[in-house]
Amino acid sequence: MKYSKVKDLLAGTLVNTEVGVRGWVRTFRNNQFIALNDGSTINNIQCVVDFENTDETTLKRITTGAALQLHGTLVESQGAGQKFEVQVTRLEILGDSDAEKFPMQPKKHSLEFLRENAHLRVRTNAFGAIMRVRSALAFAIHQYFREKGFVYVHTPVITGADAEGAGEMFQVTSLNLDQIPRKEDGTINYKEDFFGKHTNLTVSGQLEAETYAMALGQVYTFGPTFRAENSNTSRHLAEFWMIEPEVAFNDLHDNMDLAEDFIRYVIKYTLDHCEDDIAFLESRLLDEEKSKPQAERSEMKLREKLNFVLENNFKRVSYTEAIDILKNSKPNKNKKFAYVIEEWGADLQSEHERYLVEKHFKSPVILFDYPANIKAFYMRLNEDGKTVRAMDILFPGIGEIVGGSQREERYEVLVEKMEKLGIDQEELWWYLDTRRFGSAIHSGFGLGFERLVLFVTGMSNIRDVIPFPRTPQNAEF
Ligand code: 4AD
Ligand code: MG
């Protein structure tokens, strides 16, 4: 017997035929109606049990969470709420689920509770929807780059380079703790840990991707990256996925065009392919908004927000213009920001980013030409000698979703910058080679995958859009 997916049964093409289906019980009502879900869709199939001809013990074992295998006839449903249902003729319990002990009760659980049960939360409607949307977004990303002729490059997870120069790396060692060479004072000699070489988990695949762009033209990475920053915010993870395109001969404005086109494409793909999930997440969000005070409620529904991004160009604003806007903003004058902007040269805090996006421009914003001293060493220095061709894309409710730049392609300028910042040229000799042999202008960016999933699902905590979040408190399983 071939088993069908719930999604296909609900499409109705198999109506009035014998079908088989396997899945997990969401609810069981009146000893008769099973709502069965198999993960193929947010929707359940109603399976009607002939309870008069089913023994008591079996009926008792149909509990929330149990795995079942059913056979019966797919018929048009007489009841309200569903178009089709299965009239069950044969039912097998594949795996029991003790109703008293199963943590995922058929009721609304708090997100905090669900985070503690990351292995079971995917059995709820919300997490099923989020993870299907996440998967569709990942697919759309590969499809976009494939259509544009990019080559997918797998950059290493274990590396000697600190791409961002921010020192937020997890150290990697091949040795047991007691074998790691120690200095005289007993501290670990990190220079000699990974087969005699100092290594860490990658913070970004950019530097390696740049070397590939210098041969393959257009490349992208899509993989896990790691930051040992002790940030307990709803926007930071210690392990997150990043998409990093890198394109030879692109300048900063080409880079902005690419980022905008790319983000639109993947959002549109998801709206077109995950209708039911997005509709569910939208109604979930509406419920959540209702519990907030009026003034804090979002003005736009989820799909309106996503369509807004599709229909409107992102505002392109230089850092210098943004500082002027912030300096003259009411909250700044009333000192309402956690960190007040007084001086050109200050890094923007998320309060500032959100003010620009949510209050001033009311649109996604691309900020560019940042002061050189608040950005990474590899960014192209502008003619003014004090700003670099950096760009950050800021999104409503999220803040920074993309960070990118045109890269410094001039060997001497790059070396001088590295010297100034104390970046080891010997360690990055291979990176410098790209500037010694056939250097050309090139640009790229990094999109934080979970921040994109946050935006598209309307969730508000990054821990809720990755299956097993790694944060300073949680890397348990
Ligand atoms: O701005 P970042 O640090 O830029 C880079 O790593 C560059 N090498 C990218 C490039 O040009 N190829 O990180 C890029 C994006 C951020 O905009 C943010 O969306 C995300 O990665 N990100 C994080 N997401 C979750 N948790 C964290 N701790 C993150 N740190 C950065
Ligand atoms: Mg950044």
UniProtKB/TrEMBL annotation:
Pfam families registered for this protein in UniProt: tRNA-synt_2, tRNA_anti-codon
Domain Aminoacyl-transfer RNA synthetases class-II family profile positions: 131-467
Catalytic reactions of this protein: tRNA(Asn) + L-asparagine + ATP = L-asparaginyl-tRNA(Asn) + AMP + diphosphate + H(+)
Cellular location(s): Cytoplasm
Superkingdom of source: Bacteria
Keywords: Aminoacyl-tRNA synthetase, ATP-binding, Cytoplasm, Ligase, Nucleotide-binding, Protein biosynthesis
Broad class of the protein's primary localization: cytoplasm
PROSITE patterns (alphabetical): AA_TRNA_LIGASE_II
Database matches in InterPro entries: Aa-tRNA-synt_II, aa-tRNA-synth_II, aa-tRNA-synth_II/BPL/LPL, Asn-tRNA-ligase, Asp/Asn-tRNA-synth_IIb, NA-bd_OB-fold, NA-bd_OB_tRNA
GO annotation terms (biological process): asparaginyl-tRNA aminoacylation
EC number(s) from the headed UniProt entry: 6.1.1.22
Alphabetized CDD domains for the sequence: AsxRS_core, EcAsnRS_like_N
GO molecular function terms attached to this record: asparagine-tRNA ligase activity; ATP binding; nucleic acid binding
GO cellular component: cytoplasm
Gene3D superfamilies given in the database record: Bira Bifunctional Protein, Domain 2, Nucleic acid-binding proteins
Assembly information from the UniProt record: Homodimer.
NCBIfam families from the UniProt entry: asnS (TIGR00457), PRK03932.1 (NF003037)
Family that this chain belongs to: Belongs to the class-II aminoacyl-tRNA synthetase family.
Classification via HAMAP family: Asn_tRNA_synth
PANTHER family: ASPARAGINE--TRNA LIGASE, MITOCHONDRIAL-RELATED, ASPARTYL/LYSYL-TRNA SYNTHETASE
Name of the protein in question: Asparagine--tRNA ligase
